[in-house]
Specification:
It is a single chain. The protein has 304 residues and is of the alpha/beta class. It is built from 12 helices and 9 strands. A 5-stranded parallel beta sheet has the order 7-6-5-8-9. It has a 4-stranded parallel beta sheet with strand order 2-1-3-4, with helices on both faces. The longest helix has 23 residues. The structure holds phosphoric acid mono(formamide)ester (CP) and norvaline.
Length: 304
C-alpha cells in the first residue's frame, strides 16, 4: 500500500490487514510493549480545516511509533497564500517521510500523491474520511466480534462519512442502509460503486425502514465543515433525520451506536441515545489512534 487516499482504492484484504495490525498495536500499547516501527521518520500534517481527534491521534501515534509529526496549518504554510499543491508536494517530499492532509477537494489529496514522492494519507476531504471509517470498522469488530453479515445503518447527510461508510462497509461484507433527505444523497461515484452489491445496499429517506434490523446505527452532523453558511437551511432539511429511541427500537436488540464526532446533541442524535452509547462512541474515538498507527506503518514502514 503506497497511500491512503480513499477506501475505493483498497481491497477487502488490505482493509482487514490494517484492522488486524491496528488490533495488535492496540493490544501492545495497552500492555506497555513499545513498537518503534517508524523510528526517525517525520509525518507532515497539513490542516486546512479544524480538528481535535485527527490531529491529536496522528501526532500521538507518530510519537508512539518512534517518529515525530509536524502540525502544518494553512494559516502558516505558503499553500494558504496560493503556492500550488504540485510545488508543495515536491518540496515536502524532500524533507518528510509522509504527509497527512485534511482539506476540501479530494483532487488536492490525489494531486499531492501524483506530484509528490512520499506516502499521502487522507485525513478528511469533502468526499471521504477513510481513517475514520477504518477506526469505525475496528470498533464494530471489537464489539460485535465480526463484520461480515452485519447491518450498518447510516442516518443523516450523504456526506464524506456516508461515502466512506458505504464503501468500507460493503467491502468488508456488511449490508449498508443509508437514510438521507432526497437532496442530500451520497456522491454519485459511491452510488455507482454500491450498485454492484445489489440488495446489500439500501438508499431511502425512511429512517425507520433503514434502521430495521440494524446491528450498528451511525450518524454525523447535518452541517459539515465548510458548509456553515447553510446551517439554518440544513436544520430544516434534516428535521426528523435523528437517532433517537424510536430508531433504536427499530434496530436489533443490542445494536451499537457510532458517531465520528463532534456531535450536535438534539440535532442528529438525542442526548439520551448518545449518553447510553457513550462507551461505544468513545472507543471509536480512541481507535482513531490505533487504526491510524496501522495505516502509517503500512504506508511509511520499512516492511510494507
Ligand atoms: N472525527 C474527526 O475526524 O474528528 P476531528 O474533526 O476532531 O479530527
Ligand atoms: N462530516 C463531518 C465529519 C467531521 C469529522 C465534516 O466534514 O465536518
Amino acid at each position: 500500500m503506497k497511500h491512503l487516499l480513499k477506501l475505493l482504492d483498497l481491497s477487502k484484504e488490505e482493509i482487514l490487514e490494517i484492522l488486524n495490525l491496528a488490533d495488535q498495536l492496540k493490544y501492545e500499547n495497552k500492555n506497555g510493549i513499545e513498537h518503534k516501527l517508524l523510528a526517525g521518520k517525520t509525518l507532515g500534517m497539513i490542516f486546512q480545516k479544524s480538528s481535535t481527534r485527527t490531529r491529536v491521534s496522528f501526532e500521538t501515534g507518530m510519537y508512539q511509533l518512534g517518529g515525530q509529526a509536524l502540525f502544518l496549518s494553512n494559516r502558516d504554510l505558503q499553500i494558504g497564500r496560493g503556492e500550488p499543491v504540485q510545488d508543495t508536494a515536491r518540496v515536502l517530499s524532500r524533507y518528510l517521510d509522509g504527509i497527512m492532509i485534511r482539506t476540501f477537494e479530494q483532487t488536492e489529496v490525489e494531486d499531492l500523491a501524483k506530484y509528490g514522492s512520499i506516502p499521502i494519507i487522507n485525513g478528511l476531504t469533502d468526499f471521504c474520511h477513510p481513517c475514520q471509517v477504518l477506526a469505525d470498522l475496528m470498533t464494530i469488530r471489537e464489539h460485535k466480534g465480526r463484520l461480515d453479515g452485519l447491518k450498518l445503518t447510516y442516518i443523516g447527510d450523504g456526506n464524506n462519512m456516508a461515502n466512506s461508510l458505504i464503501v468500507g462497509g460493503l467491502k468488508v461484507g456488511m449490508t449498508v442502509a443509508v437514510a438521507c433527505p432526497k437532496d442530500y444523497q451520497p456522491d454519485p461515484q459511491v452510488l455507482e460503486f454500491a450498485k454492484a452489491y445489489g440488495d446489500k445496499f439500501i438508499l431511502t429517506d425512511d429512517i425507520l425502514a433503514a434502521a430495521k434490523g440494524a446491528d450498528v446505527i451511525y450518524t454525523d452532523v447535518w452541517t459539515s465543515m465548510g458548509e456553515e453558511a447553510e446551517t439554518e437551511k440544513r436544520k430544516i432539511a434534516f428535521k426528523g433525520f435523528q437517532v433517537n429511541d424510536e430508531v433504536m427500537a427499530a434496530a436489533n436488540p443490542g445494536a451499537m451506536v457510532q458517531h465520528c464526532l463532534p456531535a450536535h446533541r438534539e440535532e442528529e442524535i438525542t442526548t439520551k441515545v448518545f449518553e447510553e452509547h457513550a462507551d461505544e462512541i468513545f472507543d471509536e474515538a480512541e481507535n482513531r489512534l490505533h487504526a491510524q498507527k496501522a495505516v502509517m506503518v503500512k504506508v511509511m514502514g520499512n516492511n510494507k
